[in-house]
Design goal:
Blueprint: H1 3-6, H2 9-18, H3 28-47, H4 52-67, H5 71-77, H6 80-94, E1 111-112, E2 116-118, E3 120-122, E4 132-140, E5 151-156, E6 176-180, E7 186-192, E8 197-198, H7 204-211, E9 217-218, E10 221-227, E11 234-239, E12 263-265, H8 268-273, E13 280-284, E14 287-288, E15 306-307
Parallel strand pairs: 1-15, 2-6, 3-7, 4-13, 4-14
Antiparallel strand pairs: 4-7, 5-6, 5-10, 8-9, 10-11, 12-13
The chain binds 3-methylcatechol and fe (iii) ion (FE).
3-methylcatechol (MBD) binds at residues 73, 76, 105, 107-109, 197, 218, 251, 253.
Length: 309
C-alpha cells in the first residue's frame, strides 16, 4: 500500500546494512541478491499488511520444511525447478543449441553411486510383483551418430511410489542403476513399471499445497541422467502414458517428447522367449545429446545428493 515507509531513508539504510553494502568485505554478488530478496520481502509484508502472527507462522513453516528435509520437494512444487529448466532452454536457444532430447527436472530423490554395468541391467531385486518393464534405446549425438560409452543413470519408484534409500523398506539401490551404452550406443534394462508419487500426506509440502487447493501427486515416471564426454549432460524423465496425472503433475515435469508409447506384450511365445511368465510392458526410447558448447551455461548441476551408505 504505502511506498513511503519502504522508500524512507530509514528503511533503505536498513536494507543496505542488512546486505553488507557500503563496505568491501564479503561477496558482492551475494550482497546484491540478499538486498533484492529482503527488499521484496519487506514489500510483500507491506503490500499485504502481513501481521506478526502470519509472519511467525511462515517462519515456523520454513523451520518445519527444513526439519522434514522437504526443501527439495517444495522447490519443484512451486515451479522453481521447472523455471530453472526453462531458463536453461532459453540459454541454449540463444547459443544455437537445439534438437536434443528435452530436459526436465531432477527432483529430490536421486542417490549417487548406483551400480554400474555395461549395456544392460536389471533394476528391481525381484521382491515386487509389479508388471515387468523392458526398456531399451540408443544414445545418439546431434548428428545422429550412436554414442558408445555414454552413461545412462536411471532411477524410479516402486509400485507404491517409494524410492529406495528414502524408503528404508527397499534394498540398497533398488530401482537405481548406471548403464554404459554398448558399441552401438545402446542400453537396455529390465525393471517393473513404477507407480506415481504422492507427497508425504502429513509433511509441510502437502500442508502448503492443501492451503493452495492443490494436490501433491506426480504421474508415474522414470528419471535419467545421460552423460558422455564432449556432450552436455542431459537430466530428464519419461512419463508412463495413461497415468491419470500425466498432464497434472504437482512438480510440472511433464513435457512433450517425454511420453513414449508403452507396448503391452501378451503374446505367449514372446513372453516365453524373454524368460518371463506374464504379459509385460515395453518402452523404447532414444536419447539425443547436444555437443558441449562454450557459449552456454554448463548442465552439470552441483547439488547435495544422498549416497547410499
Ligand atoms: C519425485 O519422484 C519427483 O521426481 C519429484 C520431482 C518430486 C517428488 C517426487
Ligand atoms: Fe521422481
Amino acid at each position: 500500500m504505502s511506498d513511503s515507509l519502504l522508500n524512507s531513508p530509514e528503511v533503505q539504510s536498513l536494507l543496505d546494512k542488512v546486505s553488507g553494502l557500503g563496505h568491501d568485505a564479503g561477496d558482492a554478488r551475494l550482497k546484491q541478491i540478499v538486498h533484492r530478496v529482503v527488499s521484496d520481502l519487506f514489500r510483500t509484508i507491506e503490500d499485504f499488511d502481513v501481521q506478526p502472527d502470519e509472519f511467525w507462522s511462515a517462519m515456523s513453516y520454513l523451520t518445519s520444511l527444513g526439519q522434514a528435509n522437504e526443501v527439495g520437494l517444495l522447490v519443484p512444487g512451486l515451479g522453481l525447478e521447472t523455471f530453472l529448466d526453462l531458463r536453461m532452454d532459453e540459454a541454449e536457444r540463444k547459443a544455437g543449441i537445439e534438437g536434443g532430447t528435452p530436459r526436465t527436472i531432477e527432483g529430490p530423490l536421486y542417490v549417487a553411486g548406483a551400480p554400474l554395468s555395461k549395456g544392460e541391467a536389471r533394476l528391481d531385486d525381484g521382491s515386487e510383483t509389479g508388471e515387468v518393464l523392458l526398456m531399451d534405446g540408443q544414445v545418439r549425438d546431434a548428428d545422429g551418430n550412436p554414442v558408445p560409452g555414454a552413461v545412462v543413470d536411471v532411477w524410479h519408484a516402486n509400485t507404491l511410489g517409494g524410492y529406495s534409500f528414502f524408503d528404508p523398506s527397499q534394498a540398497k539401490y533398488n530401482l537405481r542403476r548406471r548403464i554404459e551404452t554398448d558399441a552401438e550406443g545402446r542400453y537396455r534394462f529390465r525393471s517393473i513399471l513404477p507407480s506415481g508419487y504422492a507427497c508425504p500426506p502429513d509433511g509441510p509440502t502437502q500442508k502448503l499445497l492443501d492451503r493452495l487447493g492443490r494436490h501433491g501427486r506426480r504421474p508415474a515416471h522414470i528419471h535419467f541422467f545421460v552423460s558422455a564426454p564432449g556432450h552436455r549432460k542431459l537430466t530428464t524423465q519419461i512419463n508412463i502414458d495413461g497415468d491419470a496425472y500425466l498432464h497434472d503433475d504437482f512438480a510440472f515435469a511433464t513435457r512433450d517428447g517425454l511420453i513414449p508409447a508403452v507396448q503391452r506384450i501378451d503374446d505367449a511365445a514372446e513372453i516365453h522367449a524373454r524368460g518371463l511368465n506374464a504379459p509385460f510392458a515395453r518402452i523404447t526410447f532414444d536419447f539425443v545429446l547436444n555437443r558441449e558448447a562454450e557459449n552456454a551455461p554448463g548442465t552439470v548441476v552441483h547439488r547435495a545428493h544422498a549416497e547410499a551408505a
